[in-house]
């Protein structure tokens, strides 16, 4: 063997000098966020390639993580579980180990952020990133917004719904904007963003579109189709590949029997209508008990060991069953103690949210 060939072999073994092409190929073979974090931790060049992925690239490659937040008697704990690597569990308590995280209960928003009231109490909100410890303070809200019926975090902005007003604050802007729509909020509204449009469904199943610019404007969609007004115990709006899906966890004819039903919003006709879906195809949807956040949809879950045409339903921090995988339309007996969806009495202190870290 020549000296030159030895030098070539040595160069090949220098992993930090691999060109971007092979590194991107390696990235596409990864199965989970655990693998992704390990990849980005190898060296600076590998971290640079990992950082070049867009949010849409990441959400197409990996399933979301389950963020579990538990607060009891001024003692809080936060941890992450990866469905692609179930043996992985990571605590966030060291990152979140400060007074603001331990002294107050929180609401988990649909971007995995924590939200609490700031000072002066009732008129300002603090958004906390559990992955970095970063805090963002909102401007003071108008006094008539201190009692809200529903709150959502959408498109890097906060939406507060009172009984007769919607308040909107985009992160970085100096003040709140407001709008008085002709809608009576009840605290049961659900929200999702699809192709830049904010959709809101009220407790009666009426669907609205909220335009955020150039000013707040809420308009109701006249919808034909099946009776979606038959609301289930849990319901979600989901952006599924650029289409709006309504996911309903509804009773069956059997006592304590439940199943998931899905409906697609069809905008191709003159009048919008809901169309029932018999299958999710090669998609999986991630939702949970509380709070009722927009679901997350992922295509081809088999690439990381998941299952298509199924709903990954977070079971509010149950140690034995952190989530249940339920086929669309499958009947679940919630009265069975062996079922992951057996109704327990300890859920009110635990909040769960499927999240993509850093978003």
Core attributes:
disordered N terminus; mainly beta; F-box domain-containing protein; 359 residues; F-box_dom
Structure description:
- By secondary structure, this protein is mainly β.
- It is built from six helices and 26 strands.
- Among the domains are: 1-53, no CATH class; 54-88 and 224-359, no CATH class.
- Strands 16, 17, 18, 19, 20, 21, 22, 23, 24 and 25 form a ten-stranded mixed sheet that branches. A four-stranded antiparallel sheet has the order 3-2-1-26, with no helix packed on it. Strands 4-5-6-7 form a four-stranded antiparallel sheet, with no helix packed on it.
- The longest helix has 10 residues, at 3-12.
